[in-house]
Amino acid sequence: MSKILHMARFAFLKPGAPSFAAREHPFKDIKLPEGVLRSMIFRDHRMIIPHGDDCLLSHDNAYFIGIPEEIEKFSKNFVRL
Known about the structure:
It is built from 1 helix and 5 strands, in the order ββββαβ. By secondary structure, the chain is mainly beta. It has a 5-stranded antiparallel sheet.
């Protein structure tokens, strides 16, 4: 059976959330659940395809693609837009 994937957009990390420490750390180091992939970072009107040591900064929008249920669980660490 195939799964439908969704794209979700998130803004800055919430203070006190488990992944808040990920801000200004490499985007690749943010722990993602199985079924969720990093897609892109939108910063200062620029689209960044994340790789290497690109960091997620406090005013970035981050996009993730994945299984809706997994994105929902993961989203508790972010402000969803």
